[in-house]
């Protein structure tokens, strides 16, 4: 029986599935199927699918019943997937181990289950983990056709930002000079290079830069990505006036680097500035800081004020897409 399905290239399958799952649009009664080099993801409401995705009628097979962790536990546990790692966030060790056992026994493909053992800390933005199943904190995460190797115990990475990263990457045009100031393992830098940009990417975490360079090679863009380990403020002098686009994804303290960003900006430059602010006036502080740093050298135009996600009660992760035009 034909049902509405989103048709996507195989490489984009997992990212698209996650996007549809986040919107509660996955039809769980039918299986995802491959045909003619594409994946067909059954959806419950074709009209609600984002316009950028293609919906077709496809004869998707009924979904085979799978054993889930909830089937084993008798309750629906909270967990996240990153590559072949499952991440839980439980204060109760016994509960964490029970969830890990259920995940391993279920039909979820998994190599390790980790429990968060600390908050993100330090300028390298890493956290401690309890490995409660398996023996590795390293994995390969796939996102919108790109693969990123990483070690969650050594670098910062958030799969929850995949849709936001893709939103920004889609704005990039071939030939741009892009400077990623806090690049991590390359989830902005690598896709931007794939879009034809020349990318300079910095991070204070040397391990993250090692992964970034390996990921650039893994995705076939090593010739367009320059990874630099170190404080961006110490690197910027080599790239004064170079950038057509700058990514500032360090939400808690990005404002401290605005002077450096302005120095990097070319005559026309787009700035993607990430911030964490209270729900009231959530864009105001960032916009004021950008204008103070850029003027009088630049005219400042805010193109987009976008809320990325809820961060904490009454606090939001937001982004400003800002155009700088030299006077």
UniProtKB/TrEMBL annotation:
Residue ranges annotated for the SAM-dependent methyltransferase TRM5/TYW2-type domain, each copy included: 79-326
Naturally occurring in which organism (per UniProt): Halobacterium salinarum (Halobacterium halobium)
Keywords, alphabetical: Cytoplasm, Methyltransferase, S-adenosyl-L-methionine, Transferase, tRNA processing
GO BP term (any one): tRNA N1-guanine methylation
PANTHER family registered for this protein in UniProt: TRNA (GUANINE(37)-N1)-METHYLTRANSFERASE, TRNA METHYLTRANSFERASE
A GO molecular-function descriptor: tRNA (guanine(37)-N1)-methyltransferase activity
GO cellular component, as recorded: cytoplasm
Protein name, as recorded: tRNA (Guanine37-N1)-methyltransferase
PROSITE patterns named among the record's database cross-references: SAM_MT_TRM5_TYW2
EC number: 2.1.1.228
Highest taxon listed in the record's lineage: Archaea
